[in-house]
Structures are given as C-alpha cells and as structure tokens.
Prior knowledge:
Helix content is 40%, strand content 21%. It has 10 helices and 12 strands.
Amino acid sequence: MKKLGILLLTCLLAVGLVGCGEDNKNDSTSTDNTELSGKVSLDGSTSMEKFVNGLKEAMAEKYPNLLLEPQFTGSGTGIQSCIAGTADIGNSSRALKDEEKAQGLVENIVAIDGIAVVVDKDNTIGRVTKDQLIKIYTGQIKNWKEINGKDQKIVVIGREASSGTRGAFEEILDVEEKCQYAQELNETGAVMAAVAATPGAIGYVSLDNVDDSVIALQLDGVAPSEETVKDGTYALQRPFVMATKGSIEEQNEQVKAIFDFIDSEEGQEVIKAVGLVSPK
C-alpha cells in the first residue's frame, strides 16, 4: 500500500507539472506577438525623398522585417502608379485633383512643406514680392535690375510638367500654363544644382532641400522656415500627401503600420527632423 501511495503521488505530481508546463507555454504564446513583415511599395514625389527615406530608416528599427521600397519618379507618376495598383502608396507634393479622387484615391496629408524660391549665391536681391515673382515667371520681368538687382538676365528654372512642386507653385501664384521657363528639370536636386551653377538663375524647391549652395529669398518680407510655414506667414506652402487606393482602414496591415508610425511620437520626430511641419 505504501508503494501504491508513492506511485499515485508521483503520477499526480507528473500530471501537475505537465499542466503547468502547458500553461506556461500558452502564456508565452499569448505575449509573443508575431513580427510584422513584408514589403510596401511607394512611388512619387522627389521632394518627399528626404522624408520618405527618413521614415524608412526610423521604421526599420521598430519593424526590421518590414521593407519599404520607395521610388522617386515625380508626383504625377506616383499618383498614376497608385491608381493602377502598381504602388501601395502614391507620394504627392501637391493636393490631389478631383479626377484623381474620383478614381478611388484618398488624400492622406502627412506633412506641410514650404516651397523656397532660390537664386545663385552671387545674387544680391535678397527678397521679392509675390507680384514680382509672378512677373518673373511669366516673363514680364526679365532682368534683375528691374527690381533693384544687378544688370543681369534672369534665367527662369522650374520643374517638369508632372511635378507636384511645380503644380503647387503655379497654383499658389495662379500662373498655371503661363510660366516661361528657360529650363524644366525633373528632379529637385537638378534644380538646386542648376540654380547654384547659373548666374542670374531663379528656381523653386522644397524647403527641406535648401542648402548653402544657394540663397533662399524672402517673399513679401517673410523668410521661408519651419516657423513661418507653421504660422502661415510664408505664403508658398503645400501638403505632402501619401495617397492610397481607398481609405487607410481598407489597406493591409503593412500599409496601416506606416501611417500608425507617422502618427506616433517617433514619426512626428521624423517630420520635424527633415524640416517639415506636422499637419496636426
């Protein structure tokens, strides 16, 4: 009987240990969240390159198995790629048009950007008014001496027709189809390089791309900066849009994770770090 009792006790202890082991296993499974993985394709605005690359780098720390695959082909191309379903997100540095929304695109504004008007470093003008800028780009003012600058021909540089930066710039100034460009370039970097290297040149670029190779002009006495964009005193500003086919709620988990990250404290830090303003 004593041996039988010991045997029964051993069995009970074994059953108990097995049960505890299963409970511990279940607890471990419930707290071990599956890591998000996969790929998200983004296509569009070259002006958004610094922001998107910053976002990609920051998200890699939180989601090491989620790969963002951006291309920077211009806002118009990115929008069409999103409509066609060849890109998960279409990056646009302008607001969406009604006809684009009619094709199912949703305008998700993730940041606000200033458009800086830049000239070469030897230019002494320092500032322009909105009216002067309109006249420069429409060919009514052709020499810097007409607005108290050097006796030097103005070389008007802009972006290609599908550029979101060009679209926003021309819309704000109400000069669509009226600009007289000496050069039309297809990348932000190309505009910066051309203005820096061309005496008398003027161009426009995303504020976060301005460096010391050019001079950013004041507009109506207001310098372009994060502060003046945020308080609305700098007139040349536009939205950075990450368009989706359908609402964010309709997207897959990978795409939703990107927008959740942008709304987070870490995402807002990325916006600030690249010189943009949060729309919140």
